[in-house]
UniProtKB/TrEMBL annotation:
Organism: Cercophora newfieldiana
Pfam families: Peptidase_M20
InterPro entries per the UniProt record, alphabetical: Amidase_Cbmase (IPR010158), Bact_exopeptidase_dim_dom (IPR036264), Peptidase_M20 (IPR002933)
Claim: Signal is one of the keywords in the record: no
Classification via NCBIfam families: hydantase
UniProt protein name: Beta-alanine synthase
Lineage, opening ranks: Eukaryota, Fungi, Dikarya, Ascomycota, Pezizomycotina
Length: 483
């Protein structure tokens, strides 16, 4: 992409009207003030306490980006809408353009890989050019009826870090960066975290590029990347864009922090999950002329299976099973359907528990089909595996950086707690290739993937402070060990 000079971008930014001013009005742009001495953050004698995020600017930026893909309105306040910014849609392109322009204006070198992942890298001290950066990463895409915070907070938290460093004339030991990962949600192209997966070398590029959008559309990931101008030339690979570490700030998306009145979750790992598409094929038949004992009703069978999956998961410690997509053919009031497909999402804290749950369900589903075919009707069930994510354990050095930062920012270690993430995140794949950890902030009522998803401005700022401090602490540690 041809980019304007940082100077021009900056003046363009000043002209962007701010619709959502929460507390007071000011620009979200930053330029390094004149005569600010270099603050060598990697020098162990330098205090990091002067580097704090600007809470209003952070929030204004978050709400500013919500103009692209504004979703369902649930309240009267200007910010009380959800988000509907599906990956590689026109609104996603606008949010990406904003990210590229903003980080370039902050002096970052921006590169885009062939999955459309965008990496913005800020230089470290002299002599570290070309060294891997310590990254902050998350995603700008949302669910079709999602909220303003999932993913977005992590990216704007990274941008705020760049602004604070630039404003404070801070020099880090090594480069630091922010990455926006493509299609994290898996809501439009049905593999979640697909682009960090390709970067990590765990999902083949061709498979990712060939993904078709859900809902029967014909658009592919590659086609959409091309259409919006984000099919980069750089290989999507940890070799082309290595990372020294990956830190991700994210809303908890669950009720634990709020319930315990804590501010920060120090994320030690992520539970295992598997996604399947289960297809049940029976026999189309007339609803009025076909007695029950002559039917092979795949919807009835699928309904039993969904109920059984719920019951089975409840019997395993910490396990979950859910169905979010159900389709049937042909879809007529007076025809028993012939084919039903449903999604099955199963999760557990360990791989071993998940293995047991899957085995249990496969046998349950076979039993349902066996029951249905007892009268001579034909029915079959097949499982297609769409996504597999093993239990993940994050890196001790990153977890320590988050823990120390949380204590420093909060002034009370009891306001933070260690936890395991219930949801998958790009940090899962990042952790396969570099030290990784995550920082959780409270979600109001634990609600997420919902327009009403909310995290207070105070908690967003605390999270962003812990994020920035974690990056700086890790960077300092790197200087101590790598020189
Ligand atoms: Zn997310």
């Amino acid at each position: 992409m041809a980019m304007a000079s940082p100077h021009r971008i900056l003046s363009r930014h000043h002209r962007i009207p701010f619709k959502f001013i929460l507390t007071r009005s000011f620009s979200t742009s930053t330029s390094r003030p004149q005569n600010v001495p270099h603050l060598r953050t990697y020098d162990p004698h330098t205090s990091l306490s002067s580097l704090r995020v600007n809470p209003s600017r952070l929030l204004n930026t978050l709400h500013h980006t919500s103009q692209w893909g504004t979703g369902h309105r649930y309240g009267a306040h200007p910010t009380e809408t959800g988000m509907s910014r599906l990956a590689l849609s026109d609104s996603d392109k606008s949010a990406r353009d904003w990210f590229v322009e903003t980080t370039k204006a902050l002096g970052c070198e921006v590169s885009v890989d062939e999955m459309g992942n965008i990496f913005a890298v800020r230089k470290g001290r002299e002599g570290t050019e070309g060294k891997a950066a310590t990254f902050v990463g998350s995603h700008l895409d949302t669910q079709p009826r999602g909220g303003r915070y999932d993913g977005v907070l992590g990216v704007v938290g990274g941008v705020e870090m760049l602004r604070v460093l630039e404003e404070g004339g801070a020099e880090t030991g090594f480069p630091v960066g922010v990455v926006n990962w493509t299609n994290e949600e898996g809501a439009r192209f049905p593999i979640s975290m697909v682009s960090s997966g390709v970067w990590a070398g765990e999902i083949p590029l061709e498979k990712a590029h060939g993904l078709k959008e859900v809902g029967g559309g014909t658009a592919t990931m590659r086609g959409e990347l091309e259409r919006i101008g984000y099919l980069g030339e750089m290989p999507a690979s940890h070799e082309a864009m290595p990372m020294a570490a990956h830190f991700e700030l994210h809303i908890e998306q669950g009720p634990i922090l709020e319930k315990e009145e804590r501010k920060i979750g120090i994320v030690k790992g992520v539970q295992a999950y598997r996604w399947f598409t289960v297809e049940v094929v029976g026999q189309e038949a007339h609803t009025g002329t076909t007695p029950f004992n002559a039917r092979a009703d795949p919807l009835l069978a699928a309904s039993w299976m969904i109920c059984l999956s719920n019951r089975a998961a409840a019997s395993f410690d910490g396990a979950l099973a859910s169905t979010g997509i159900l389709t049937l053919e042909p879809g007529s009031v007076n025809t028993i359907p012939g084919k039903v497909k449903f999604s099955l999402d199963i999760r557990a804290p360990t791989d071993k528990t998940l293995d047991m749950l899957e085995k249990h369900l496969r046998s349950d589903f076979d039993n349902v089909v066996a029951d249905a075919t007892r009268n001579g009707q034909e029915m079959s069930v097949t499982w297609q595996t769409d996504s597999v994510s093993s239990a993940v354990y994050f890196h001790d050095s990153c977890i320590k950086a988050v823990r120390d930062s949380a204590t420093a920012v909060l002034g009370d270690e009891n306001l933070a707690r260690e936890m395991t993430s219930g949801a998958g995140h790009d940090s899962v794949y990042a952790s396969r290739r570099c030290p990784t950890s995550m920082i959780f902030v409270p979600s109001r009522k634990g609600i997420s993937h919902n327009p009403k998803e909310y995290t207070s401005p105070e908690d967003c700022a605390i999270g962003a402070d812990v994020l920035m401090q974690s990056v700086l602490r890790f960077d300092r540690q790197r200087v101590a060990t790598e020189g």
